Amino acid sequence: MQAPSVGGVMLPRGNGQTVRLSRGASLTDFAEKINANPASLVGVMMNLGEMVTATQSVSDETLKLLADEMNFVLEIVSPEEEDRELLESFSIEFGEDEGGEEMLVSRPPVVTVMGHVDHGKTRLLDAIRKTNVVAGEAGGITQHIGAYQVATEVNGEERAITFIDTPGHEAFTAMRARGAKSTDIAILVVAANDGVMPQTIEALNHAKAADVPIVVAVNKIDVEGADPTKVRGQLTEFGLVAEEYGGDTMFVDISARQGQNIEQLLEAVVLTADASLDLRANPEQDAQGIAIEAHLDKGRGAVATVLVQRGTLRVGDTMVAGDAYGRVRAMLDDKGENVEEATPSTPVLVLGLTNVPGAGDNFLVVDEDRTARQIAEKRAARERNAAFAKRTRRVSLEDLDQVLKAGLVQDLNIIIKGDASGSVEALESSLLQLDVGEEVDIRVLHRGVGAVTESDIDLAMGSDAIVIGFNVRAAGRAAQMAEREGVDVRYYSVIYQAIEEIEAALKGMLKPEYEEVELGTAEIREVFRSSKLGNIAGVLIRSGEVKRNTKARLLRDGKVIAENLNIEGLRRFKDDVTEIREGFEGGINLGNFNDIKIDDVIATYEMREKPRG
Ligand code: GDP
């Protein structure tokens, strides 16, 4: 095989050498790695039938194609790995406790509540929060910061448990998809009157996939017809066998509404943690953890709830969270009180970040402001590249005309803005999970916390996207701009509603399939010539009915002579009519088409939309 050459320029041959490129790299990035001229790589791609510019981010497949062509082995670096390397370049290691065993101190379990909709997740989270109101604190407003910590007594010892306050596995999954492990234990809520439902199983599978032990809360036992035993039986099929039946899963019958057995549930969480997990962390190092919720506050700027996973976070620390950074100006706990420090498994609201991190972004404390800024900036640049890569439409020359003709490529581009990063991510991951068939792709071009801005509308205009505002509105002139430019901006405050609507819109967006349905045939018995209208066919309707303004073709001796004709005029005797049925005579005018003869047949048809199966 010859080395590819473009315009006489020989390209480097990889000889099986490895090139490492990050996801969403451009041809220029590639060229830099192998000391080639970017333009020559553009040329190679053109020979391969794809038009790409040198600086545009391209897909994994394109990079692979190019690498193969030049005999390089391509290694695409995942965002997580890239981030690890970025931190390593600052001699920072994320995710491991510093020091040896002796540095580790036990920490509270972090719990997520999951289960089918309406089975009582929200109610349970509220009930748990209430059981823990310490005397004297009653009347104090507990703040929703995305997580809270409660204490419970187990075997005479006070034990803390941290709850992630966004029910549902969507948020859990979104975080996990970003490589964040936020949860130690999952409480699976199953309503005893309803039993195991689809999302129960979904939640269960997510927990299993994440290798997270499950405690089952059989809820609504106060409801008539509640059958907690049946729930146990049903879950056995999914590998969750209750302790009382010889299994190792703890089931607790509760009523979230009546606050019944909440303490027992908390105890089950602690016991399950003790039995199957070794929850310890080093509290003495620089803090690390994840952001679980963040939003922009009018008065306070970016506020983020972070969960400390190791180390101790202190006011005055310099931190990076995702692509946000800053000095911790103040910290508030879940009761809205100022705190000076937060130890492992403690959630705190942090003030002082430059912008809003995403749910599931990791955070870490670093020694110098400069380091924090550099890490944040590198991450932001990477995000931008990745977003751009998603935006690039990949249509190869090979199938471009077919694709256009057939309308096969149809994407729904979406921009999501919301009040908090948790809800934005939950919405995004749910949308991306929508199953709408193969012909349509959903792409989230951009997502963020805050109002819908003019720049969002700009992006939407440029890429035919729709904008979703979740608990936010358009700011400033964005609304007028959207209206003027015809950008569809939709507002929601319930995730399910948003998803349902998008799903419906997508189904409507699928190109309808049409089929031809024959309406009737008419035999030409006579041809009349009219100076005004041209030739008129005197016909007998042989089958079905002939309607005005429908499509027709002309047959002569069984052969099609003309297609795509129109029944422009239809008459019975002297009257214009809209239709003539089988067995009747009449006159047909085919508009400009005059080539008709006696014995020709006019067959009429219409295109009808095929219902989708
Ligand atoms: P989620 O969708 O899982 O968060 O469910 P919610 O917490 O919103 O609860 C759904 C409905 O069930 C609400 O009307 C609750 O008041 C009700 N509910 C929740 N827990 C109980 C319970 O223990 N007993 C009864 N009777 N109703 C409950």
UniProtKB/TrEMBL annotation:
Signal peptide: none annotated. GTP binds at residues 115-122, 165-169, 219-222. It is found in: Cytoplasm. Residues 106-278 form the Tr-type G domain. InterPro entries: EF-G-like_DII, IF2_II, IF2_N, P-loop_NTPase, Small_GTP-bd, T_Tr_GTP-bd_dom, TF_IF2_bacterial-like, TIF_IF2. PROSITE patterns: G_TR_2 (PS51722), IF2 (PS01176). It comes from the Bacteria. Its main location: cytoplasm. GO terms for molecular function: translation initiation factor activity. One of the essential components for the initiation of protein synthesis. Protects formylmethionyl-tRNA from spontaneous hydrolysis and promotes its binding to the 30S ribosomal subunits. Also involved in the hydrolysis of GTP during the formation of the 70S ribosomal complex. PANTHER family: TR-TYPE G DOMAIN-CONTAINING PROTEIN (PTHR43381:SF5), TRANSLATION INITIATION FACTOR IF-2-RELATED (PTHR43381). HAMAP family: IF_2_B. This is Translation initiation factor IF-2. It comes from Streptomyces alfalfae. The gene is infB.
